[in-house]
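Chapter review. Work through the record for OstA-like protein before attempting the end-of-chapter questions.
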Amino acid sequence: MSARSTVFFKLSAGLAAAAIGALAIVSGAAAQATSSQMRGMQLSNDQPIQIESDKLEIKDPESKAIFTGNVKVVQGTTTLQAGSMTVFYKAEGGATVTSGNADIDRIEVSDRVFLSSGTQQATGDSGSVNLTTQELVLKGDRVVLSEGKNVFVGCQLNVQMDTGEAQLEACGGRVQIQLDPQSRKQN
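Structure tokens for OstA-like protein:
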């Protein structure tokens, strides 16, 4: 019988913002859907969003846009990189992703996912964001969440984006945490 190790914690606002921002900024509609929370985390909708990939395939009948090959999404100091990113949107009232008025439902990323914002970073093999339920999941053999010298390692990171609460799972192993005592704020 394998033991399952899990650690619960409140994700710092900066990394939660990086995760939310990097995955939600792929369209103006997604940014509008999370604007009040993003504003509180010092991400703003007024900064330009740049998306680069080797290929973009838009499948309007299936309500999805597929970015493949060296995908890079940047807004301000937030960066998301992955091998591929699929954006699923709701095609209500003739909305399309190319017109900029699509309502994003969820986003899936895979092939070496990297999130960065300032000094905070998260890496994994794949990830997803459900904008309806405000849940972010990052999975992999080794999911690493770090800020400076503080490092958390597991296999799955679950974040409730509206509260910033996070859960790091070890999936049969043990969650590993390395904390730098110098990172504590001095009073």
